[in-house]
Write a structure and sequence with these properties.
four-stranded parallel β-sheet; 41% helix
């Protein structure tokens, strides 16, 4: 898809690495032609592509002996050497954030993968623990492989792009992700309203698609701050990076995450970070963020006030980022994934 977000970015950048690291060994099967230099089998189909079209391809194409699915759903017909990435099982933790059909489909897909996949890749210990807890998955079947990120240039960002959103550098906080209850955007807005009582200049930029409950969240923004909350919806990477880089700080309030690539992007831009105290964020950031209890809007508001004039401890957080980021790259993710795939085929 032209508008890639989390799982799409994971698939795109990881496949690029696998092509680079295993030249001549990979064929890409997809519903549409992908802009990657690799042999491809293109099978157009509008919905349930994996369940239906990929299953038929696996049935008739005996050359498919080692299948890797980068996103949660396995075909019903598959080779014995099949590996899959399950990013999270948020639908089990926050079922109200999903429609009934979506929740049922994802639950079926997770059960099927746990039972039939030879290997399962997850991005965090949180997802591994959830698969063991909810689906009784054998832990030795699961490999934790952290995700990567695309480093961006610190010079040359086009800050004129901010004008279309009426944003002034260093006069706003930024959140990147879906606007939805699962991501805790509702609580973020409550916290900003508290913060705005003592600060009359800063804005809050929400960068991302509307998710489930997102429209209701935006419609319920209090009248006294509605002009200080900027909803950009999805933006291209050039715009996103400019908005992130020019902000006063990055806020990641999510109630649940399988990983959290935006945290890597924020560290790459050397931004101070406020994050909810969920395990995945703490595993990535360690002690180098201002954490708040996930439902505590007042505590989040206090941290916003701290970032207006960041103290030395926040500057120390930023100094720690380069060492943390060494652990997260698509190159490393590709090498670890390829190792799993070769073991799956053994």
């Amino acid at each position: 898809t032209a508008k890639r977000t989390g799982v799409e970015n994971y698939s795109f950048f990881l496949i690029k690495e696998l092509i680079k690291q295993a030249p001549g060994e990979i064929t890409l099967i997809s519903p549409r032609k992908i802009d990657l230099d690799v042999p491809q089998i293109t099978i157009p189909f509008p919905r349930l592509w994996t369940i239906m079209k990929l299953s038929l391809e696996c049935l008739k194409n005996k050359k498919i002996d080692n299948l890797f699915i980068p996103s949660h759903v396995m075909p019903l017909i598959y080779p014995k050497n099949t590996a899959i990435t399950i990013h999270d099982v948020a639908f089990k933790r926050y079922p109200k954030s999903y429609g009934f059909l979506s929740r049922t489909y994802l639950n079926f897909a997770a059960k099927f993968a746990v039972k039939h996949a030879k290997s399962i890749i997850v991005p965090s210990e949180t997802t591994k623990e959830d698969l063991v807890k909810f689906y009784k998955c054998k832990s030795d079947k699961i490999t934790v492989i952290p995700l990567g990120y695309e480093p961006t240039k610190k010079e040359g960002a086009d800050f004129s792009l901010l004008k279309q959103y009426d944003l002034t550098p260093n006069q706003y906080f930024v959140y990147v992700g879906r606007v939805e209850t699962k991501k805790n955007t509702d609580n973020l807005i409550k916290a900003f309203e508290i913060f705005a009582k003592s600060n009359t200049s800063h804005k809050l930029a929400l960068v991302g698609f509307l998710g489930r409950g997102g429209e209701e969240i935006l419609n319920n923004i209090p009248a006294n701050i509605v002009n200080r909350i900027v909803n950009t919806n999805y933006v291209q990477d050039q715009v996103k990076h400019a908005i992130i880089q020019a902000s006063s700080g990055f806020i990641f309030p999510s109630r649940y995450e399988g990983f959290g690539i935006p945290l890597l992007e924020a560290m790459d831009q050397r931004l101070p970070i406020i994050a909810s105290n969920i395990p995945t964020s703490k595993a990535i950031l360690q002690d180098n963020a201002l954490y708040f209890d996930v439902e505590n809007a007042a505590q989040l508001a206090e941290h916003m006030q701290t970032l207006v004039n960041p103290p030395d401890k926040v500057k120390a957080h930023i100094n720690a980022y380069p060492e943390i980021l060494k652990k997260y790259s698509w190159d490393a993710a590709g090498k670890q994934t390829l190792k799993v795939l070769k073991a799956t085929n053994a």
